Amino acid sequence: MPGGAGAGVGRRRGPTRLVVLGLLIAAGCVSYIDRTALAVSTVEIGREFGLSYTDLGLLLSSFATVYMLCQIPAGLVADRVRARRLLLFSLLVWSAAQILSAFSTGMGGLLAARGLLAIGEAPIFLAGTRVIALWFDRGRRAMPIGLFNASSALGQVLAPALLGGIAVQFGWRAMFGVVGCTSLVLAVIWAWVYRDPRTVAAGRGETRPRPRSPKEIRFLLSHRSSWALAGGFVGVVYLQWLYAAWLPTYLQTARHAAAARADYLSSLPQLAGFLGGLGGGVVSEVLGRIGWPAARACRVPLVAALFVAAAATILAPLCPAMVLSLVAMSVALFAAGIAMTCGWTLGTVLIDDGSIATLEAIQNMGGSLGGAIAPVLTGAITQRTGSFTMAMVVAGLVAALSGIIYWVGTGRRIEA
Predict the structure, then answer these.
(1) Measured in whole angstroms, how far is the alpha carbon of residue 284 from the centre of its chain?
(2) Which domains does the chain have, with CATH numbers?
(3) pLDDT-derived band of residue 296, with 50, 70 and 90 as boundaries?
(4) What is the pTM of this model?
(5) What stretches of 50-138 show up as alpha helix (H) in DSSP?
(6) Neighbours of 98 (CB within 10 A)
């Protein structure tokens, strides 16, 4: 265990690596349940506030837009500020945002709450990846990062059934209140349990991260691999947000499923995405153990997965039966899950540990651009054409282009 982590010193014993990973998985899962909450009740909220597909697309995109703008600042903060304090702040802010959503009286209130949610959640995967880098050696990070990233898909698996049930029984406002309180409980647990591994061994307060040079961003942005990571991640997150934002609505309107059934069926492709996230970690680690360089072990399955996801997404709306469409979307999200894990792990092996969060922020900023565009563009195309078909074809093309960007641009490690 790095730095003697887990050896009890002083007044209290520190967490083990499994406990730390479990906390991160819980946080990642809850964060995506919170993000997905709006999509679960899109039809009901749209009906109550009189919103069009375009309005709903803007509302669904608002989170990703603010999230994107927060990525570089969040990455710099994550490389400077202690993880325990930063993630506690993050959890408290997004808890407040969800509770505020419950009291919204119109689109403006929901937009403000979604923006606050994005500010709160911006550091979670950046700081969490840095925590994994502290607790796990470079050659053994693919699996924990895979589990951490898969937690996002797990959140999307659980959200439709759990939140849909609450919304049907008690209304969408109660649903937002429940997820806000759940995040608040998790914040208390995180603050109580988590300690930095080096400080557990030393028996003192958390080690302050090494200060970063103000020239760091300029250096990273001068390297082609940084831009390729950002550009490639656009397609990965575009696909995730396409399905997270519009899948329940697609099943209700295009496949004529009842609301409760649509929520249940939406969980099936998201479950495939969760399994894909786990599979990405397994594939990368196995390839590394048979002698592949760490970067190649991430890059090859990443690109292959993006092309599979692209083809399956284009095929999904063309299937004559709903069950075939669900199979195609499940394949797409399984492949997207592999791409998410491999893409995120790739960023950790192309740079020194001290700059991981900042580089991942650059990559995630690109991903957030995809996340911001996907809901609103999908809504606009669907509003104009009266069908989701063209919107899903566009999503497939974006994913394929991202695969090309990753293959061409990430062949070299980022070094001074």
Answers:
(1) 19
(2) 12-200+212-409 (1.20.1250.20)
(3) very high
(4) 0.75
(5) 53-78, 83-102, 107-121, 124-135
(6) 27
